[in-house]
Design goal:
It is built from 5 helices and 5 strands, in the order E-H-E-E-H-E-H-E-H-H. The protein is of the alpha/beta class and about 160 residues long. It is globular, with a radius of gyration of 16 Å. It starts with a strand and ends in a 6-residue tail after the last helix.
Length: about 160
């Protein structure tokens, strides 16, 4: 089995890399060039494709021949970073088993319940983060909408 982990250098990504290696999978990790050093513990055991995860050429190269693609969708960055990542995975890994991880504020059915004070905090944080160009929570919501409405079969 060959698995691609998009966002491999983050906390969840590193956990997924370790988990896949422990099960004998061949692993391809994708992460930003400045984060490659975070994967030194896996040197010689995984293939690392450095680059922006929304870069379609990076994703196309990374998912080639993979049986599964695990994608960590984080809202960091702007300019459709998260939705671009999700769309590239959907486009270039149509036959692979896909797993997407997203933020706690994403709701597939709209039935999640949060206290009003918490929702206000999220709204304020989201606005401020977008203003200073750190994160875009709305883009993460868009990425998840694309995943949920794709032709991917959900079980």
């Amino acid at each position: 089995m060959k698995a691609c982990i998009v966002g491999a250098s983050g906390k969840l990504g590193q956990y997924m890399v370790r988990h896949a290696l422990d099960r004998g999978y061949e692993v391809v990790g994708v992460c930003r060039e400045q984060s490659v050093g975070k994967l030194d513990a896996f040197a010689g055991r995984i293939t690392i494709i450095p680059g922006a995860t929304k870069d379609r050429a990076v994703i196309e190269k990374a998912v080639a021949g993979c049986d599964g693609v695990l994608t960590v969708l984080v809202p960091w960055g702007v300019y459709q970073y998260t939705s671009g990542t999700a769309q590239a995975v959907l486009d270039y890994a149509p036959r692979a088993r896909l797993v997407f991880s997203c933020g706690w504020h994403i709701s597939r059915d709209g039935q999640d319940r949060y206290p009003r004070r918490f929702k206000w905090f999220v709204a304020a944080f989201g606005w401020l983060a977008r203003l200073v160009r750190v994160a875009d929570l709305d883009d993460q919501v868009e990425a998840c909408r694309r995943v949920f409405t794709s032709n991917t079969r959900w079980t």
